[in-house]
Amino acid sequence: MSIVQAGMRLTVWGARGTVPIALEDPSRYGARTCCVSIEAQGRVLIFDAGTGIVDLGNRLMASGEREIDLFLGHAHYDHVIGFPYFLPFYNPACRVRIHAGHMQDGRNCRALLEDFLRAPFHPVGLEKFKADIEYVTFRPTDMLQPSAGIRITTHELTHPNGAVAYRVESDGRSVVYATDHEHRPGMRDVALETFIAGADVLIFDTTFTDEELPRYVGYGHSTYEEGVRLALATGVRRLVLFHHSHKRPDDDLARIEREMQTLLPGAVAGRPGLEIDLPALPRAPEI
Q: Which residues form the Metallo-beta-lactamase domain (predicted)?
């Protein structure tokens, strides 16, 4: 795994939601749950720790990467179930910062993860980690700067127990990771549109279709059609359809992908191994 030094590279490691299964075995869209990496300025930024993070961790250890930032969108099982199986946590040569800002009960990042990895639900806790780990607690709207040249802004999403979207900016490029969000049909979300506006890539929660959504009000998820509407309203050309339902067969996903591409040619269904490279843009000359 060769980490880009300029521009950005987005890689999907898992794109399913709820549970790590798919109706087909194997599935063209995978069964792994939410995990995306973004490489920028020679750094590895990871968004969510679903089962997709396991393969990513193995790749990072094999390639010698030792400086890692992990950002949690929230802590429902499909977004953290791979967390204790991320190999860099067990390597004393690794330095990992874990960020969480979705909590609505006053807990900090470390307390949240201690509660997740405890008996009788998991045999070992955070005390088994050997890496140099920093637990970072923030509030939605805070700006994060994991290293020079990378700026990450945050935005609160509508989801049970809370969720956070991230906008990553580096070398004139920007990627928004905004999954697990429920929109209100027929109503614009101006704050979210402002957060997304002009991004090169939007990774968005597309669990349902508009037709299905009324049966799932309050579940905290959005639709394929809403993802396209958001992209068109905000000038985003590349949309990654994400958090696919575990009930969605491959043929349905392929059909939806084709239909969304007729509305937005840059739409693509997320799947393990999907990579999008964003070369650095030249800087404007100083006056």
A: 45-244
Domain range holding 216?
A: 8-277
Work out the pLDDT band at 5, boundaries 50, 70, 90.
confident
The CA-based diameter of the chain, rounded to the nearest angstrom, is 62
Dihedral sign of CA atoms 179, 180, 185, 186 in order: negative
Q: Pairing between strand 201-205 and 95-100?
A: unpaired
Query: In CATH, what number is assigned to the domain containing residue 119?
Result: 3.60.15.10
pTM of the model: 0.96
**What's the token pair of residue 183?**
């929109």
Residue 270 and residue 44: Cα distance in Å, rounded? 19
The per-residue pLDDT for range 72-127, each reduced to its tens digit, is 999 999 999 999 999 999 999 999 999 999 988 888 999 999 999 999 999 999 99
Distance CA 237, CA 69 (A): 27
Sorted by sequence, the CB contacts under 8 Å of residue 50 that are 6+ apart come out as: 14, 16, 20, 32, 33, 34, 35, 78, 79, 80, 81, 82
Is 3 a member of any domain?
A: no
How many separate domains does the chain show? 1
In whole angstroms, what separates CA 121 from the centre of its chain?
Answer: 25
> Would residue 287 count as lying in a domain?
no
How many Å separate Cα 258 from the centre of its chain? 23
For the sheet with 267-269, list strands across it. Answer: 143-144, 151-157, 163-170, 173-178, 201-205, 238-242, 267-269
Within a domain: 269: yes
CB 133 within 8 A of CB 114: no
